[in-house]
Design a protein that fits this description.
Layout (H helix, E strand, L loop, with lengths): L13 E7 L5 H10 L4 E5 L12 H6 L1 H19 L1 H4 L10 H26 L2 E11 L2 E6 L4 E11 L3 E3 L12 E2 L1 H5 L7 E5 L3 H12 L3 E5 L11 H13 L3 E3 L3 E8 L2 E8 L2 E7 L1 E4 L3 E3 L32 E3 L10 H15 L13 E3 L4 E6 L2 H7 L3 E7 L4 H5 L6 E7 L5 E8 L2 H13 L4 H5 L10 H10 L10
Parallel strand pairs: 1-2, 1-5, 2-3, 5-16, 7-14, 8-9, 8-14, 9-10
Antiparallel strand pairs: 3-4, 4-5, 6-15, 11-12, 12-13, 17-18, 18-21, 19-20, 20-21
Helix pairs in contact: 1-5, 1-9, 3-5, 3-7
Bound molecules: flavin-adenine dinucleotide and nicotinamide-adenine-dinucleotide.
């Protein structure tokens, strides 16, 4: 399809591209397809708890954005209490107005989700609010929220239906006592005792939010190691910091049951010491998410799901059925907004006959706790397992003037590079603004940079980014601002 053609005129029911799902995978796909001069409709069925329909999916309505709003508010509150006096700032009796905190969060969500409508208008995307179902390649049934039904046609259909929280048979959701992450984002008061099942990204972020406001937080993790997916030097440093903050993380804890008793929950689990019991006021179940494809596919479309329910795709998000693509959380790969966005853009460009690629080897992960945790590429454990000789450079924020000035000198930056050609294999950061710092490493790896490339790149002084620079230098034992080990 030529991209310099004039945009194909869409009839009310016929489009070049229909995207089902308007989350961070689907809405960028729709916008890029429209930028490629294709006529596009994006169908989304999301409704918020007040009944209002909103584009943006999990990320904007009940995930990335509201969680970051609460993390910011509670971190400021925590620092006002625990840190301001060190700077000489005396503020007696700071309190947290939870209703105001939640109001601010909802305001941000509203602005961001309405922003998508403005983006659609600007790009010429037709936004349709309601349910979409692939009837056959090229045919989509759209059921509006008022129940009216139409069959739409499109040359290309992109499935971006996202994911939903996994429910545990041993601890089924029973709001308001046993909730998923959306419930935990919306608590109207600070629970005195909060249980969290799962020490993953959600457990740590939302556990931190409510801990900072005074909740006693116990996190039950089934695996014996903490943050098994992360570099273990990073994970150990983070765990030490979380324990110091009072997050009670119990590893090797397998939940066997949870019973609501009045307004409390009795949780039963087993660990190395045998059967245990815990009573909490609220229990958050955050044990991962599963692909969501309910009523998405009519019989006989030919689109395949794997044994875990993910839509089967190749590396370019083709389903194998001509004109049907799938992107984001409903397909393999990490469940991250930026991964979905990149796939959406790739597919929209491929549909338009342009170049499109997603570099799955260089997808950053960020956990927005304090300290922040971020990484890209191989962990040291993965580098070791690969059999390729590697070297490691570490730089602690303790030796960073900027981190000390910020009163945030915990953690470190770590570079893992190949011994043979010096290629950067992975970068791991635990410390202040790690999620921002990792972008440099992502760019470096995208361009197959060596640790010497980072070493020879001038970093402004005094900045946190110098920690990445010095970690790269330390990989060759040439660190200037730290003792080389
Ligand atoms: P979704 O965002 O789930 O969007 C799918 C959309 O499709 C939804 O609106 C859904 O209603 C709609 N839909 C589904 N089926 C149909 C249908 N048949 N018809 C019409 N519409 C349909 N990721 C990050 O990268 N950074 C973060 O900081 C981060 N924080 C998170 C915090 C929390 C608490 C949670 C739960 C998740 C977080 N994530 C984060 C993960 C991120 O939200 C997901 O990876 C991302 O939303 C996936 O995007 P998606 O477009 O594939 O799916
Ligand atoms: P997760 O996969 O990050 O963590 C789930 C944790 O629960 C794991 O540590 C797992 O071992 C543990 N677990 C599983 N079953 C258990 C059980 N029965 N008992 C005790 N522990 C158990 O999943 P999540 O935290 O629910 O997050 C879901 C998805 O959302 C993730 O894929 C994540 O990438 C995404 N997300 C990303 C961000 C971010 O990028 N900052 C934030 C939140 C969520």
């Amino acid at each position: 399809m030529a991209t310099d053609d004039k945009k194909t005129a869409a009839s009310a029911d016929s489009f070049d591209v229909i995207v089902i799902g308007g989350g961070p995978a689907g809405y960028p796909a729709a916008i890029r397809a429209a930028q490629n001069k294709l006529s596009v409709a994006c169908i989304d069925e999301w409704k918020n708890k007040d009944g209002a329909a909103a584009f943006g999916g999990t990320c904007l309505n009940a995930g990335c954005i509201p969680s970051k709003a609460l993390l910011e508010s509670t971190e400021l509150y925590h620092r006002a209490q625990a840190e301001f006096a060190t700077h000489g700032i005396r503020i007696a009796g700071a309190t947290m107005d939870v209703a105001q905190m939640q109001k601010r969060k909802s305001g941000i969500v509203r602005t961001m989700t309405q922003g998508i409508l403005a983006l659609f208008k600007g790009a010429g995307v037709t936004g349709l609010q309601g349910h979409g179902k692939l009837l056959a390649p090229g045919k989509v049934e759209f059921t509006a929220h008022d129940g009216t039904r139409r069959t739409l046609s499109a040359r290309q259909v992109v499935l971006a239906s996202g994911s939903a929280p996994i429910e545990l048979r041993s601890a089924p959701f029973q709001s308001p006592q046993i909730v998923d992450s959306w419930g935990a984002l919306d608590f109207e008061a600070v629970p005195q005792r909060l249980g969290v099942i799962g020490a993953g990204v959600i457990g740590l972020e939302l556990g931190s939010v409510w801990r900072r406001l005074g909740a006693e937080v116990v996190v039950l993790e089934a695996l014996p190691e903490f943050l098994a997916i992360a570099d273990q030097q990073l994970a150990k440093e983070a765990l030490r910091a979380f324990k110091k903050q009072g997050l009670d993380v119990r590893l090797g804890a397998k939940v066997t049951g949870a019973t609501v008793k009045g307004d409390a929950v009795e949780v039963r689990y087993t660990d190395g010491k045998g059967e245990q019991q815990l009573t909490v006021d609220r229990l958050v179940v955050a044990v991962g998410r599963r692909p969501y494809t309910k009523d998405l596919l009519a019989e006989g479309t030919g689109v395949k799901l794997d044994e875990r329910g993910f839509i089967v795709v190749d590396e370019h998000c083709r389903t194998g059925i001509e004109g049907v693509w799938a992107i984001g959380d409903c397909v393999r790969g990490p469940m991250l907004a930026h991964k979905g966005k990149e796939e959406g853009v790739m597919v929209a460009d491929l549909i338009a006959g342009r170049y499109g690629e997603t570099n799955y080897k260089v997808i950053p992960s960020v956990i927005y706790t304090a300290p922040e945790i971020a990484w890209v590429g191989l962990t040291e454990e993965q580098a070791k397992a690969s059999g390729r000789a590697y070297k490691v450079g570490v730089f602690p924020f303790l030796a960073s003037g900027r981190a000390r000035a910020m009163e945030q000198a915990g953690g470190f930056a770590k570079v893992v590079a190949a011994q043979d050609n010096d290629e950067i294999l992975g970068v791991h950061i635990v410390g202040p603004l790690a999620g921002e710092l990792i972008a440099e490493a992502v760019l470096a790896m995208e361009y197959s940079a060596s640790s010497e490339d980072l070493q020879r790149t001038i970093h402004a002084h005094p900045t946190l980014s110098e920690a990445v620079h010095e970690a790269a230098l330390n990989a060759d034992k040439r660190s200037i601002d730290n003792i080389n080990r």
